[in-house]
Description:
Elements: E1 13-23, E2 29-39, E3 42-43, E4 48-55, H1 64-73, E5 78-83, H2 100-112, E6 117-126, H3 128-138, E7 144-150, E8 162-163, E9 166-167, H4 170-181, H5 191-198, H6 204-208, H7 224-235, E10 262-269, H8 273-286, E11 291-299, E12 307-308, E13 311-312, H9 321-333, E14 346-351, E15 364-365, E16 368-373, E17 387-388, E18 394-395, E19 427-428, E20 449-450
Parallel strand pairs: 4-5, 4-6, 6-7, 7-10, 10-11, 11-14, 13-15
Antiparallel strand pairs: 1-2, 2-3, 2-5, 8-9, 12-13, 14-16, 17-18, 19-20
Helix pairs in contact: 2-3, 4-7
Amino acid sequence: MAADGGFSEPMYHTALESDLMVPMRDGVRLATDVYRPAGQDGVVGTALPTLLVRTPYDKSAAGEDSEWAHWFTARGYVVVIQDCRGCFGSEGELGFLGCEAEDGHDTVGWVRAQPWCDGQVGTWGTSYLGWTQTATAAAGTEGLAAIVPNQSGANGYTSSIRHGGALELRWIAWLFWHSARNTQAALKAQPWVDAALNLDPIPFGQWLRRWPIRPGATQLALVPPYERLAFALLTHDRYDDFWTNPGINPAAHLDRFTDAPTLLMGGWYDSYTRATFELFEGLSARKTGPVKLIVGPWSHDQTGETSAGDLWFGQDAAIDVIGTHLRWYDRWLKERPNGADHDPPVRIFVMGGGSGARGPQGRLSHGGRWRDEFEWPLARTVYVPYYLHQDGGLSPQPPAVDRSSTTYRFDPADPVPSIGGNVSSLFEAPGLPPGIAHPRDTFLFEGVQNLLEPGGFDQRESAQLYGCQPPLPAARGTG
């Protein structure tokens, strides 16, 4: 990745204006922080390109988004971070992804009308923060000049909310833990609501063993917007209008997509891998603006790391994530000739080839290398059909019988363990950390626990894995 035009250098400190209440088209106001570059003589007075982040995870929380905001502000960008509808400082009820297209569209319009914005808006964000970007683009929003959706969705019915139509239960888990940690005043007007959700709740892992849940039977009944969303996700099991919303299914609105330079990022061990490639394929076929794709051996929210689960891929797997973003913004928002437009359309990390020896932290040295490609699917791909057989196996040979079936007994009290893989966000929040009485007094994710770990793992069961039961092997290796 040549950078012949250089990068924006740090020149400024930050002037922060907090908790601006930005009105949406229906009158609901969303809490918004604005980070502006400032020098010795005060806030920079000229209009500058602006980067927008819309998050359900508390704009005021210490963490990557606020750190990145200061980093980009130092390099001459205005940064705007906003709480999504129904979250933390914002008004309204949580609309999940279904409200993000309109709210993103209206927020970009507000940003572009401010004297500190030069009319160009870029975006960044991972996971839900990636969905908020694609939702805004799918609304045909003017002014989007560069977007970087990282590990984000495409068609929520075929992948990433449901998968081939089957619900990914992580989203119900998300509603459980997010409702507990959301400090929006209107959501928890009665103090006992917050206490019931945080001090001694029934953890989501226990609800999984009592599945299915019913309206009014769980702690979600205390937070009606969350309960309504949970049962909407559970009951819309057919591809109906619910799944055509541009926030939930941006892939259905590609013809309306803002033609902004788009850098998509994903990971082989991410839950959004399929969606990342689907969005790249769809946008590449329709848009004139550059569409690029980077996929590494990463798990969810671990972009740029060198390991996933018990596998280590070597130092070459690491990338400078924030520098990659800056290079994209500098090229398209500041017109710096840094070579970003000349990169191959696809850059993938091909896993394998390692020694198998123990690497850092005892992980298996799996290895791999980066490879540049010019399309996806690869033109040289050879497609081979595989057929299911009556013994449960797969084979290139068609089955010898016309019909067969397999039955199993669904028993939530005895779940089948899932050990690693392309999973994310199947969290539970069993309570606040010791000594903490209110979620506002702790980091958002502190005390939140994974029920499933992403990445590559030894497939032998152990007592530390959700769903495993005796008899277990006497000892489990770390490979």
